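User: tokens in, sequence out, please.
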């Protein structure tokens, strides 16, 4: 048991933000599968324990949103220097959500672990779509933005030794682990998609629809820009301004 109290000489007004403490306790329980954390305050007891760890966390984040998958896809990988846990799935919405942690610290600005994860899933989907010959004409490539649409993901890494963060708030992880996570995620997801081709095709089609929407949006913007450019060219400058009347005696 570890007990501590704030020093009244340093903290003359001692106030605890109970909501923040409960939020942190729950997050730590999610990130450490099976760990039981009990918070007691003013006679109230709050117990946090999750046997499936971040998969339980993901289910909480997803809530009642319609999804493409009955169960999230999870990856757990550990070696001497890195422990990676991630769980993710695609919803039918266009918004995406990424929650990432490094050594149980929330990295709100992402960093190397998020970059590696995004690269890995993008490469896995590209490879799957290519090998299954699913890419329709008119789409030259699948982008990370196409893959991200509707994706809800949780990424947690534990690193040995000194961990390098950016900024005092530790909001971004700078450690050089991107390529390692990229490789693990790519091979794990690609294998899963080929082993579950019905679901794999469903996810691939979801990504392809996002790509088609991206291309259609770009073409619409380009068309508007062309029309605007032509309109500007047709406007007559200075004294050669457009006629404002149909009376030929009044018009220049």
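Assistant: Sequence out:
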């Amino acid at each position: 048991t570890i007990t501590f109290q704030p020093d009244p000489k340093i903290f003359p007004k001692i106030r605890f933000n109970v909501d923040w403490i409960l939020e942190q306790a729950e997050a730590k329980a999610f990130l450490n599968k099976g760990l039981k954390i009990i918070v007691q305050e003013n006679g109230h007891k709050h117990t946090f324990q999750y046997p499936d760890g971040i998969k339980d966390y993901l289910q909480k984040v997803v809530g009642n949103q319609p999804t493409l998958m009955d169960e999230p896809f999870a990856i757990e990988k550990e070696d001497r220097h890195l422990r990676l846990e991630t769980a993710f799935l695609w919803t039918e919405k266009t918004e995406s959500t990424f929650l990432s942690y490094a050594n149980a610290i929330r990295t709100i600005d992402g960093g190397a672990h998020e970059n590696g994860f995004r690269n890995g899933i993008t490469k896995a989907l590209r490879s799957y779509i290519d090998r299954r010959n699913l890419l329709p004409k008119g789409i030259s490539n699948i982008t990370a933005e196409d893959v991200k649409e509707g994706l809800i993901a949780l990424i947690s890494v534990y690193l040995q030794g000194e961990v390098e963060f950016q900024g005092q708030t530790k909001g971004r992880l700078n450690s050089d682990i991107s390529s390692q996570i990229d490789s693990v995620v790519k091979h794990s997801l690609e294998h899963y998609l080929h082993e579950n081709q019905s679901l794999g095709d469903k996810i691939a089609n979801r990504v392809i629809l996002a790509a088609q929407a991206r291309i259609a949006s770009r073409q619409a913007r380009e068309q508007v820009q062309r029309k605007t450019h032509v309109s500007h060219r047709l406007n007559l400058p200075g004294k050669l301004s457009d006629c404002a009347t149909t009376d030929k005696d009044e018009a220049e």
